[in-house]
């Protein structure tokens, strides 16, 4: 027993010594790398600034070595975040000239998912058209985060031929990464607004259609009002609510009748009525006054609040409805009317 305990103690002590030695060596290497970076960074920063400031710049003189190239990329990414237009394009061209973009593209073929994710994110930050081919290959990566990051990058860079592939990735991964897919669609809506119509098509997953409806509304994409109106006929309440809200943001007066039908629809979730109520207020059509006045007496407090706020947006007719509501025997109704009129 004593021999066993001694053996265990020796093993634990040896392990502890090795762990401490590893920590000391890693810290020493990190300190050495930091000192090396601190000595290289000023020269690299000056070289990049002079390159960007020159009228007809030639490639700047960059120190040799892996550490220097990594630092060039780091400084370039930090600088690119503050640049736009020609200066940013010139900086990206420098990274391409130095072969750094190609090196990062090769990392997308790594066996390690973490390396591929980092490469995809770095290419997205660079925004180089030269990386389009490699990013398009990354759309088929087995790693979900790599796929989604490549799709986000291509939403900014891609030509029309690659948009269907970007949307296909968004469709496949909308459930697993709704936030990332939504961000991709926002980018797509700004760079290729017509493509958002594809996300609203009935053949797409309900998750993607919901996100597409939200983006179409937030970006005020009037060209998609017909698809949003069609989405309001869906059996999916969440999609209907987002489509209704989107039409309100766009200000589509052609959707008023359909929105009025939703306000009084039986069997629909309360949040569908809420979205339709808000949309009618945003559109501002006086035909909505009667329906909104009825919503003021709803047994759902939030619906009462939104109906009162919507009526306030409908001009003198809405104000008259609110003043009538102030005389209601129902305290909630009169209170909501008073609050709305005080705004």
CATH architectural grouping of the domain at 284-343? Alpha Horseshoe
Distance between the termini: 83 Å
Q: What is the tally of beta strands?
A: 0
Output the number of helix runs: 19
Q: Write down the CATH class of the domain at 284-343.
A: Mainly Alpha
Nearest-integer average pLDDT: 86
How does the SSE layout of this entry go?
Blueprint: H1 2-53, H2 66-80, H3 85-97, H4 100-107, H5 113-126, H6 132-138, H7 144-157, H8 163-173, H9 178-191, H10 196-199, H11 206-218, H12 225-231, H13 237-250, H14 256-263, H15 270-283, H16 289-295, H17 301-312, H18 315-326, H19 331-342
Helix pairs in contact: 1-2, 2-3, 4-5, 5-7, 6-7, 7-8, 7-9, 8-9, 9-11, 11-13, 12-13, 13-15, 14-15, 15-17, 16-17, 17-18, 17-19, 18-19
Description of the molecule:
With 343 residues, the chain is mainly alpha-helical. It has a domain at 284-343: Alpha Horseshoe (Leucine-rich Repeat Variant), CATH 1.25.10. The protein is built from 19 helices and no strands. Helix 1 (2-53) crosses helix 2 (66-80), helix 7 runs parallel beside helix 9 and helix 9 (178-191) packs across helix 11 (206-218). It is elongated and about 85 Å long. The model has no long low-confidence stretch (mean pLDDT 86).
């Amino acid at each position: 027993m004593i021999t066993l305990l001694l053996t265990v103690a020796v093993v634990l002590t040896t392990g502890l010594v090795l762990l401490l030695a590893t920590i000391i060596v890693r810290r020493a290497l990190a300190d050495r790398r930091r000192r090396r970076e601190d000595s290289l960074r000023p020269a690299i920063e000056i070289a990049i600034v002079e390159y960007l400031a020159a009228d007809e710049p030639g490639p700047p003189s960059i120190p040799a070595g892996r550490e220097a190239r990594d630092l060039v990329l780091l400084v370039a990414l930090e600088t690119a975040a503050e640049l736009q237009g020609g200066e940013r394009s010139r900086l990206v061209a420098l990274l391409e000239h130095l072969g750094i973009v190609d090196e990062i593209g090769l990392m997308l073929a790594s066996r390690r998912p973490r390396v591929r994710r980092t490469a995809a994110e770095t290419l997205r930050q660079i925004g180089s058209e030269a990386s389009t081919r490699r990013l398009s290959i990354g759309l088929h990566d087995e790693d979900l985060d790599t796929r989604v990051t490549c799709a986000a990058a291509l939403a900014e860079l891609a030509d029309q031929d690659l948009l269907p592939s970007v949307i296909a990735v968004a469709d496949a991964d909308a459930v697993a990464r709704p936030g990332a897919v939504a961000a991709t669609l926002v980018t797509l809506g700004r760079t290729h607004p017509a493509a958002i119509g594809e996300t609203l098509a009935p053949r797409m997953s309900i998750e993607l259609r919901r996100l597409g409806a939200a983006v179409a509304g937030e970006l005020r994409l009037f060209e998609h009002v017909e698809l949003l109106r069609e989405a309001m006929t869906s059996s999916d309440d969440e999609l209907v609510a987002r489509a209704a809200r989107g039409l309100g943001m766009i200000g589509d007066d052609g959707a008023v009748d359909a929105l009025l039908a939703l306000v009084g629809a039986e069997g629909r979730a309360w949040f569908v009525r809420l979205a339709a109520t808000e949309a009618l207020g945003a559109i501002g059509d006086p035909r909505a006054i009667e329906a909104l006045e009825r919503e003021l007496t709803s047994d759902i407090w939030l619906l009462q609040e939104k109906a009162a706020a919507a009526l306030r947006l409908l001009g003198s007719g809405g104000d008259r409805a609110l003043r009538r509501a102030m005389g209601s025997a129902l305290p909630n109704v009169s209170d909501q009317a008073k609050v709305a009129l005080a705004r």
